[in-house]
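User: Hey, my collaborator sent me this sequence without any context and asked if I could get a structure. I don't really work with proteins. Can you help?
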Amino acid sequence: MSDPWTYTGQVPLTGQGGGVVTLVDESTFTISHGSGDVSGHGPQGLFVRDTRILSRFELLVNGEHPEPLQAVADEPFSAVFVTRLQPKPGRADSTLMVFRSRYVGQGMREDFKIRNFADEATFVSVELRVDSDFADLFAVKEGRVSQLEGEVAREMTRDQIELTYRRGNVNRGVQLRFSPTPTKMAEDIVTFEAIVPARGEWQACVEVHPVIEGKVIDPRYLCGQPVERGAPSERLAKWRRQVPQVETDHESLTGVLARSSEDLGALRIFDPDFPERVVLAAGAPWFMTVFGRDSLITSWMALVVDPDLALGVLQTLARFQGKDIDPRSDEQPGRILHEMRFGEAPSLSLGGGSIYYGTADATPLFVMLLGELRRWGLAREAVEELLPNAERALEWIERFGDADGDGYVEYHRATDRGLANQGWKDSWDGIRYADGAVAQAPIALCEVQAYVYSAYLARAHFAKEQEDEATYDRYRTKASKLKEDFNRDFWIEEKGWFAVGLDAEKRQIGSLTSNMGHCLWTGIVDEDKAKLVADRLMSKEMFSGWGVRTLASSMGGYNPISYHCGSVWPHDTAIVAAGLTRYGFMDHAVRLMTALLDAAVSQGGRLPELFSGLDRGDFPAPVGYPTSSSPQAWAAASPLMCLRTLLRLDPWVPYGRTWLAPVLLPGMKRLKVEGIPLAGSRVTVEVEGDDIEVQGLPPDVELVDEPRHPATAA
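Assistant: No problem. I've predicted the 3D structure and written it out in structure-token form, which is a compact way to encode the shape of the chain:
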């Protein structure tokens, strides 16, 4: 069996008329045909906590599959599938339509409605064919479901079917409850027979209850209850009320930001043990779970919308911070996790899943984000409670991250399982030399050192607030030394760019990549090198016209439709734009953000996880990547990062200052952002041409109406 953390294959999507529809609520999701059917083939199904509890869910009326007409998804977790029966012989139009209203959340509810538009009553026989293989999510995603391991038992009553699965200590099940009572039930077929009145309708409802370790879980939506009262509806409504409102004469920006906010709202998950803590999942449908790096970067990008996301992510990751040394999961004391999964775990809490820690960057990003949250002046007590976790994270950096004591954080997996590459480009071939050869671990990545630099500075400023001068001096000194060493050891003088990493022999891995844009973002780049870096990032070999390529087209191993070796990732491009802005290269940054916005507009307002690096001059729209998640968390948050970059908003509330120097996109004359959360206040920024008005700033915070210089940004 392959290791789920190293899978890089393609999702074997299948389809029949109407395409594929995905509905998501936290760690529950369905993938179905456009008709609503789950056919029992490919990756379709109802998944709850990384287990497929329904592998077949097909509706037949009078022995035929209704013809799909339209699938309307009102919310991320609900949709109505509109179908019709084939017309009778000799008639052009059908008189029977079938409406399937599906609601996903901790299971599923589905309402079936058959409407008869004829002038006489019609008999219908409605069959629902159901089955479950209780397959692991990764086995389904990778197309490895061939023969079920374990035993499945079935029990039936007048109005219920229960399937139970056992394999060793694993116990899963599903109950399907029907209303009204079916006419008859067989092992896997439920039949209703009814007379649909002339110009009338017939209805039925099915509830799907997961069973985990013998405990029956009620779905969020139960038959007969108003959907509006469901928790996901209430949470989304609350989210929409608190998201800052954006008004501008740039219609594309407004639409993309609205889509981004909606997608982020849908990608939030909540820990049943701590329901007040919201965490961002990485992406739908396959990654509706906690990811260290993804959740940290996404919540950073979304600070301008909701800092509670960052706090929930930090608290959750702190809860599962590494304690022991375990080579099987790459766990080490103080390390922040990479990924959490729920498969074959008895608990219903986040803690019941399998945790993998193989990432080099989540740990410094944890300290970075904690420092940034403090700079926004939010949740002071909660932030201070997390300082011991930050201290343990810094201890991991110095003890385990820098195992050879050279001052750089390297990664090297403990066993042949897990991720060979443990930066954000974590595919097996994601880190290459300029000639295309794949670099082998241990590797010190350039952006990881940049994150460590920023983490050191964050810790120094925490010490400054506590009047702990010794700790302040220690971490300022460490940051300064790291910056000096980095600019010496990673800089390729003859090329004019930073190496993507250092290999085991401390040789430069000299390919031209987007990673060095992250170094601009944190401020680790010396100013005398910044313009060269900025120009390289915007060169024809790096800038596709839609965004920054992960690997330059001039490098060996470049492939525009690879995962990390020439594709464009929106979050990567947004970070590069923020880095360019930090060093004052606004023309470059605006060009990047405009390109990213154009890419979103060309795809209905939503940015996918990644798209190809093919040149914009050759194609009128970005060419998609076949297994890209959509919506995906940091792609969804990228326009929000761009919004903050346009505002040039940089709070430092503990020091009583907030920098703000907005710029507008080409053709934009007006921008108003109302309700930015800052130090317990809600700030409104309005830009009309060269005029800027700011309202709601906390009284003890001074507005500095100029951009911050990189030398002072630390």
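In plain terms: Residues 7-18, 345-349 have pLDDT under 50 and may be disordered. You can pass these tokens on to your collaborator as they are.
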